[in-house]
């Protein structure tokens, strides 16, 4: 390999991880947005809008059930066969599942088979995302120049807001149709667009070399026989702390970008287009802020930065709901943006922070299990819990704000615990490849 190609690989790997996760999260957020707007009416028709919405969010949660097992399976093979092969497979699965959802018949056409097929494809989506995140983070961070792992690990994290932007744009376009056309065929177009993104993403990912750290590990130590069982046996404590640490970064997005759509349109009676426009602006702010968060954390220390971000995140939902309930679009943007910038600071930095807690030969398995465990327990259930709280305490936003704060507290506990665990491991000369800064 020439020196020029070698020096370009870190940037190419980071961009490929960013674009790949953009495609994956576009697909995932497309389902989330559709679940809040239309899937209940199409696949779970009912005279009670609350029942339809709850059923729709239940299928959203189903996609998370497969994620821990998927993370373990892809982590196993990613630590044995390499990161690149797994990432190409996960992208293919996600693209096929999302396109398939856009082709499904409605409940009115085929009855109960419609929601059954929807749930099956939703599970495939969950399998794909379960294996995607860990591999994308590692392909980017393990190609990174010395001292820049946190920044490079944040590139895949930017795929989340970019994917959300694309999803919001697509739904903003189709919601401009008449309600009849939107219900009849318009909602399908964002799902069908996934096929085009799939082709683009596959081409880009195919041009990136395998992780150099993985290649060196193979040469020196060979492949571990059972990475999943080994990482659970020897690193279960950092897995639990890492899962807790990612809570607000994962569940918080589904609170502000999925549940909030339902909350604003159902309980504040605002038009769909208004909240989608607000979230579009907020997501641009998030996309710009995330790399700055990663760079700040490299300067001040990941653990210290994450601790302060989690502490501030505990406070942000209260002004957020005060401003959202004014129903003024400008104030809605300000209120949600403050919460999103803070929680996305955690999201941007947490990938590199938790990766350093696991040795190379177990890293894909370790971070995938931790992240997907959190996504299943907190991410998938957040819109459901939010919907039930909003229904139970109609006209009151304080229980919702307290729920958001509780998610932030769980992250704070995980961040502090992971940092202290890693500090003790360093003092005992534990065989890890890198360490987050201790508190």
The average pLDDT value, as a whole number, equals 84
Beginning-to-end CA distance, first to last residue: 41 Å
Number of helices: 22
Structural class: mainly alpha
Q: Can you characterise this structure?
A:
With 439 residues, this protein is mainly alpha-helical. It is built from 22 helices and no strands. The chain has a single domain (3-427), classed as MFS general substrate transporter like domains (Growth Hormone, Chain: A), CATH 1.20.1250. 83% of the residues lie in helices and 0% in strands. Helix 3 runs antiparallel to helix 20, helix 8 (149-174) packs antiparallel against helix 19 (329-355) and helix 15 packs parallel to helix 20.
Please outline what is shown here:
By secondary structure, the protein is mainly alpha-helical. It has 22 helices and no strands. The protein has a single domain (3-427), classed as MFS general substrate transporter like domains (Growth Hormone, Chain: A, Up-down Bundle).
């Amino acid at each position: 390999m020439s020196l020029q190609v070698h020096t370009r690989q870190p940037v190419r790997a980071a961009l490929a991880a960013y674009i790949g996760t953009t495609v994956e999260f576009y697909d995932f957020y497309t389902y989330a947005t559709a679940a809040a707007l239309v899937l209940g009416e199409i696949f779970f028709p009912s005279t009670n809008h609350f029942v339809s919405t709850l059923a729709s969010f239940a299928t959203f949660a189903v996609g998370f059930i497969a994620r821990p097992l998927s993370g373990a399976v892809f982590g196993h093979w990613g630590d044995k066969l390499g990161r690149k092969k797994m990432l190409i497979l996960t992208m293919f699965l996600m693209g096929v599942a999302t396109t398939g959802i856009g082709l499904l018949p409605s409940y009115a056409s085929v009855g109960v088979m419609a929601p059954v097929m929807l749930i099956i494809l939703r599970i495939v989506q969950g399998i794909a995302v379960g294996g995607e995140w860990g591999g994308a983070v590692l392909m980017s961070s393990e190609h990174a120049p010395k001292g820049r792992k946190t920044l490079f690990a944040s590139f895949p994290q930017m795929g989340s807001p970019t994917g959300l932007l694309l999803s919001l744009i697509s739904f903003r376009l189709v919601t401009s149709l008449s309600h009849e056309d939107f219900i009849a065929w318009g909602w399908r177009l964002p799902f069908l667009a996934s096929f085009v993104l799939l082709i683009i993403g596959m081409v880009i990912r195919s041009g990136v070399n395998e992780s150099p750290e993985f290649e060196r590990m193979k040469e020196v130590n060979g492949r571990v026989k059972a990475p999943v069982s080994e990482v659970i046996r020897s690193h279960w404590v950092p897995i639990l702390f890492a899962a807790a640490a990612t809570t607000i970064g994962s569940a918080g997005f589904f609170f502000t970008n999925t549940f909030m759509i339902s909350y604003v349109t159902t309980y504040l009676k605002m038009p769909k287009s208004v909240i989608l426009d607000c979230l579009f602006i907020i997501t641009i702010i998030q996309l710009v802020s995330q790399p700055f968060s990663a760079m700040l954390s490299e300067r001040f220390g990941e653990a210290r930065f994450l601790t302060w971000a989690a502490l501030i995140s505990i406070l942000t939902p209260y002004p957020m709901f005060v401003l959202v309930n004014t129903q003024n679009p400008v104030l809605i943007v300000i209120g949600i943006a403050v919460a999103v910038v803070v929680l996305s600071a955690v999201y941007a930095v947490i990938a590199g922070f938790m990766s350093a807690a696991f040795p190379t030969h177990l890293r894909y398995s370790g971070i995938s299990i931790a992240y997907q465990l959190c996504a299943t327990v907190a991410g998938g259930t957040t819109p459901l819990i939010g919907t039930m709280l909003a229904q139970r305490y109609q006209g009151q936003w304080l229980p919702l704000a307290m729920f958001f704060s509780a998610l932030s507290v769980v992250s704070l506990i995980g961040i502090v615990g992971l940092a202290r665990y890693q500090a003790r491991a360093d003092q005992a000369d534990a065989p890890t490849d890198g360490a987050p800064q201790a508190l």
